[in-house]
From TrEMBL:
Keywords: Isomerase. GO terms for molecular function: isochorismate synthase activity. NCBIfam families: isochor_syn (TIGR00543). This is isochorismate synthase.
Length: 338
């Protein structure tokens, strides 16, 4: 049985004392809360995942209604007007009940590159260490929170989204309007500014492009900014960086604490959604993804919970926010064969 760590602090201590040579797993939206981190016996050895078709039959479905989400967006717009936050990211929750259990690793394989839901890195994390016995966090996030390789730190934040078009012409038009969207550029700048503020004191070099570029998943276009820094102090590990940077304003908001309070008031607890998934070894190297475009499978493996969110800033349109969540739900729904 691999060692399990129910918090980032416990995993960090085990790495520091040399008790383990690596940790892998997930921590939640609240990085100080319950985590599901473990030390695999043979770190680095993974079983190749094979994508198999799934025949999913949904027997029950419960989603945050579009009208409720639109009202919540209006509530955030009011909070922005009142000066409580500059940006907050609101998410809808979708619960599905399936007629037959899903195999967690076979489902994760449905997210791997080349599959219909392909984005970047697929993961399947058992959540037992966090007390969610038998539950799994499964998905494929396109968003790199942070990677540390020696002294080099890389972040690749996304913020600002447009649903993909249905044909080449509308898809191109979606890119052009995203590139020119003042609202999306402001949404994006909150994230880059916050990462730069957090990294600047830790880095002796920091390269930040002047303007975001466009990247895609099969479901959406995003504004993205690759950030590269060189650590002044090599003792700062990838896990330290992930816990420091998460949640970024890509999934939370600005200021962080005020946005997290607003989200908790409106949505309730997010658990593992919008936290981080990844690994860190004893040298401090590691890689953490933002846990979005993912689902939690319950202990019976028939209950699925998934989330889709988007950033709200002054000028956001409630109906467009609803449409953005519909597009983002596609990644998980496609993986489920729905
Ligand atoms: C919150 C999500 O996505 C995040 C929010 C984005 C946005 O508001 O434009 C874009 C990418 C992600 O950083 C999600 O997919 O649930």
């Amino acid at each position: 049985m691999a060692a399990e760590f129910p918090s980032v602090a416990a995993a960090r201590a085990a790495l520091l004392t040399g008790e383990v040579t690596a940790v892998t797993g997930a921590f939640g939206f609240d990085s100080t809360g319950k985590a599901a981190l473990l030390a695999p016996h043979e770190f680095g050895e993974t079983t190749p995942l094979r994508s198999r078709p799934v025949d999913t039959v949904v027997t029950d479905r419960d989603i945050t209604p579009a009208a409720v989400h639109a009202d919540r967006v209006r509530a955030v717009l009011d909070a922005i007007d009142e000066g409580r936050v500059g940006k907050a990211v609101l998410a809808r929750t979708l619960h599905l009940t399936l007629d037959a259990p899903l195999d967690p690793e076979a489902l994760a394989a449905r997210f791997t590159p080349g599959s219909d839901a392909a984005t970047t890195t697929a993961f399947a994390v058992p959540l037992d260490a966090a007390g969610r016995v038998g539950h799994w966090l499964i998905g494929a996030s396109p968003e790199l929170l942070v990677r540390r390789t020696g002294r080099v730190v890389t972040c690749h934040p996304f913020a600002g989204t447009a649903p993909r078009g249905t044909d080449a012409v509308s898809d191109r038009a979606a890119v052009e309007s995203l590139r020119a969207s003042d609202k999306d550029l402001r949404e994006h700048a909150f994230v880059v500014d916050s990462l730069v503020d957090a990294l600047r004191p830790l880095c002796c070099e920091l390269d930040v492009p002047d303007a975001p570029r466009i990247e895609s998943t099969p479901a959406v276009w995003h504004l993205a900014t690759p950030i590269r820094g060189v650590l002044a102090d090599e003792s700062v590990t990838a896990l330290d960086l992930a816990a420091l940077l998460s949640p970024t304003p890509a999934v939370c908001g600005t200021p962080t604490a005020a946005a997290a309070d607003l989200i908790a008031e409106i949505e309730g607890s997010r658990d593992f959604y919008a936290g981080a998934v990844g690994w860190c070894d004893a040298s401090g190297d590691g890689e953490w993804l933002v846990s979005i475009r993912c689902l939690e499978l319950d202990a019976a493996h028939t209950g699925v919970t998934t989330w889709a969110g988007g950033g709200v800033v002054a000028g956001s349109d409630p109906d467009a926010e609803v449409a953005e969540t519909e597009a983002k739900f596609r990644t998980v729904l496609t993986a489920l064969g729905l």
